[in-house]
Amino acid sequence: MSALLEISGYRLAFDGFEGRAHVLDGIDLTVAEGETVGIVGETGCGKSVLARSVARLVDMPPGCVPGGGIRFAGQDVFAMDQRGLARLRGHGVAMIFQDPMTYLNPVFSIGSQMVDVIRAHDRAEGKPKRARAAARDAAAELLDAVRLPDPGRLLDRYPHELSGGMRQRVLIAMALTGTPRLLVADEPTTALDVTIQAQVLRLIAELVAARRLTLMLISHDLGVIGALCRRVVVMYAGTIVEDGAADVLFAAPRHPYTRGLLAAVPDLARPAHRARPIPGHIPNLLQPPPGCRFHPRCELAVGRCVAEKPPLRQVDGRLVACHRAEEAAA
Ligand SMILES: Nc1ncnc2c1ncn2[C@@H]1O[C@H](COP(=O)(O)OP(=O)(O)OP(=O)(O)O)[C@@H](O)[C@H]1O
Ligand SMILES: [Mg+2]
């Protein structure tokens, strides 16, 4: 398998009112074509910023300081010009987000928005732009592919006339327009109720398999990740702390933070077995803790954890960034 996505030493800081926030601190992540990778971590740990960086969708205001690099299919995404970026977003990376309503324009019908997207993709690909009628047929086909009933009629409806689950399907259909290789789904089902969530997750799984997509799924729900991803990447305060096969990580986590995350999941089968929250809070990224960013909350922390940032290293068949990973296992 060849690497589709290579993120190396990627850093991102935002200069703001109160100073510089070190939001991502040296991310190393290589994803091979066809992999399904889940990214988990507490709120604010940098999952969305990382995901958006892959398609260069993160706002890069003057005060934003990136470092390291991101390559997609061998190409440096930070060196791309506008045309290269249009191609990357059309045919390389497609994204779906948590709140579908934000990404649909309330004043245009579903059909007119899809037709515009389809024709924009034609332009980005350098193909002759399809006529509106042909693009509309293609839109109906895509709606059918995401199992929306009666696509012909749906095209004439407006976003507010659709349920949340239907809107998310429309956005998934739009994401498939340019035949992407990598699908980045950032909390795609968080806004949906559990039954609709299950349907949308199944749809994503089916599309990933049928179209041989590489999947990067961001969620703070370990159950969602476990259902769709074979590999799990755990983030904490802008760093990757553990990265490995989902069954290995879930069965025997080695980073104290991953252990904490798993212990914090309520067990419905054993209600008496209370979920244990991780004590403390995520750190202020204006002044992140030195060494391991997790050390203030870690029961195993020793002097070295304060002094030295632990590198990601191989332990028991996965990567883990912890000086005390061996002790954590004991
Ligand atoms: N454009 C921006 N300017 C300044 N800071 C930003 C910007 N975008 C994100 N941040 C900061 O980056 C950090 C990471 O944000 P991010 O949205 O990636 O978190 P997350 O892990 O996706 O959280 P959640 O689970 O809540 O979605 C946060 O501290 C956030 O305030
Ligand atoms: Mg997010």
From TrEMBL:
Keyword Nucleotide-binding applies: yes
Topology in the lipid bilayer: Peripheral membrane protein
Domain ABC transporter: 7-262
GO biological process, one term: transmembrane transport
Keyword Transport: yes
PROSITE patterns the UniProt entry points to: ABC_TRANSPORTER_1, ABC_TRANSPORTER_2
Localization annotation: Cell inner membrane
GO molecular function: ATP binding; ATP hydrolysis activity
Any single GO CC term annotated in Swiss-Prot or TrEMBL for this entry: plasma membrane
Keywords, ordered alphabetically: ATP-binding, Cell membrane, Membrane, Nucleotide-binding, Transport
Recorded superkingdom: Bacteria
SMART domains linked to this entry: AAA
Pfam families per UniProt: ABC_tran (PF00005), oligo_HPY (PF08352)
Main location: membrane
Similarity remark: Belongs to the ABC transporter superfamily.
UniProt-recorded name of the protein: Methionine ABC transporter ATP-binding protein
Organism of origin: Falsiroseomonas bella
